[in-house]
Amino acid sequence: MGGQKPTRVTNNIKALRTARGDMTQAELAERLGVTRQTVIAIEQGRYSPSLEMAFQIARALQVTLDEVFHYPNQD
Amino acid sequence: MEERIVCVYLVLVIATSATYFAVIASRLRGTPASQVEWVTPMLWTLGISIVGTIVGTILATIAASIRQGVRGRPVDIEHGTDERDREIKRYGTRKTQAIVGVGLGGGLILAMIDADTFWIGNFLFLIGTLSAIVETNVKIRAYRRGF
Q: At what angle do helices B83-95 and B97-112 cross, to 10 degrees?
């Protein structure tokens, strides 16, 4: 793998948590019903959540899905 | 929590299996395989792996919470499994399918050629050990680097 992230999907979760009054990873994890480690893995791009969880994250952060997750163009 | 269980299990599988194979190898010296007592040591190995994983995980969890307390962090002990844990579990199982397949085939061949139960039992145990080591390594890598 050589340090390359396993997914090309990037996200703004950390910035959006801060924008929502410094919501902690633990608080977001509790709202999503997952462990804090999973939230950390998603934030760091080590894990791509399911579509359903992606919608739940967007809802918890009160933004739309494409404000949270981004996928770069091929070129 | 799941990652901790996997780490403890990996250490125990390596330690107990290495001990088991060392004991069996020493018994095999100068004794025909059919006369080597292997069932009881194998049952002990399996039992210690299972009980050791439970006890080891509890101790590792206590140690982690003490470490957090010493560092002045709020104690944050997570339990249960979530979507990521389940996906990593499936991923780990998928990666060992080839080893399990070889094990099944090899076990069948040994039975077909009427090999002693010592060889059938120990071959299957070896396959189980290899499979567990590969699976836990794959899972730990997935937890730490993603997949």
A: 40
User: pTM of the entire structure?
Assistant: 0.81
Query: For B33, which DSSP code?
Result: G
Which of A7, A28, A39, A47 to probe the B interface (max B CBs under 10 A)?
A47
- Residue A11's SS3 state is strand
Q: Three-state SS for A10?
A: strand
Which backbone phi and psi does A69 adopt, to 5 degrees?
Answer: -110, 145
- Tens digits of per-residue pLDDT, A16-53? 999 888 899 999 999 999 999 999 999 999 999 999 99
Cα distance between residue B138 and residue B147, in whole Å: 9
Give the residues of chain B that fall short of pLDDT 50. none
Strands A69-70, A10-11: pairing kind: antiparallel
> How large is the C-alpha radius of gyration of chain B?
19
**Chain B residues within 8 A of A38 when measuring between CB atoms:** 82-85
A38 near B CB under 8 A: yes
Q: Provide the residue count of chain A.
A: 75
Q: Does A47 touch chain B (CB under 8 A)?
A: yes
How many Å lie between the alpha carbon of B79 and the closest alpha carbon of chain A?
A: 8
